[in-house]
Amino acid sequence: MPDIEQDVLLCVTQDHVTTVSLNRPKQLNALSNALRAAITNTFLRLRDDDETHVIILTGIGRGFSAGLDLKELGQAGLRSGVSSADLHSAVTGVGKPIIAAINGFAITGGFELALMCDILIASTEARFADTHVRMGVVPGWGLSQRLARLIGASRAKELSFSGNYLDAATAERWGLVNRVLPADELLNHCQQLALDICSADPLTLQTVHQLIDYGCQHSLAEGLQEEHKRSLAHTGDVSAKQLEARRLNVQDRGRAQQPD
Questions:
Q1: What are the pLDDT digits (tens) for 98-155?
Q2: What is the pTM of this model?
């Protein structure tokens, strides 16, 4: 049975994979203060949850997330409710792989939420847009920095300057998402990918996760130096017996994945 964090957010854990679903479908999962608080509290909890090894983040209905709840903000203002820094810190600091299963509209703040994830997989119904400049609001969750690193500065400027929509097929071609799947296959695919990740050596997975993120935030020279330091520290923790067992496991898995 699902563990319901709040009505606005559903959280289910199975086989060490936790699926977090934004649950305001009538509002295209717009990020109300209540939903932002639920996301923040959930990711803070999952950070220390030993049963959770991989997280899938998705939305219920036609939207991944339409961004901040503009109706609510129109009444209370931008500075109301949960701190944007708290939400960003909770999601990006969870320390576990996050797969974004982008089922529909990912707009502005919803787009930023998707970009906080490690791996982006989209359904054919996914649509992306950045309307910050049309709303007169400067991004605060990393979109201006992350998007250009994923798809290049020129394409990022086109999206952010125009506010135009980007369809799923173009998003895949541009390298924004890894692949596009029919809507009814999206979650199953992401769950299988999450299980594949769960089967990796946990400590090594955590270290490689940290190294890739470190490399995205530093120069190549700094990244190589950090990798060398982490590799040396890790080498002493692996025995010959462990290496042999893992080699056989990798071989068996490779054979299983070969086409008939």
A1: 999 999 999 999 999 999 999 999 999 999 999 999 989 999 999 999 999 999 999 9
A2: 0.89
User: In 3D, which of 109, 57, 50, 54 has the Cα closest to residue 78?
Assistant: 109
CA dist list (Å): 247 to 206, 250, 254: 20, 5, 11
CB atoms under 10 Å from CB of 196, counted, come to 12
- Here the tokens at position 90 are 């909770």
Evaluate whether 156 touches 147 at the Cβ level (below 8 Å): yes
| Domain range annotation of the chain | 3-198, 202-256
Token digits for 75?
């009444």
CA 58 to chain centre: 9
Q: Assign domain 3-198 one CATH number from 3.40.50.300, 3.90.226.10, 1.10.760.10, 3.40.50.1000.
A: 3.90.226.10
By mean pLDDT, which of 82-96, 161-175, 226-240, 242-256 is the weakest?
A: 242-256
d(CA 10, CA 3): 7
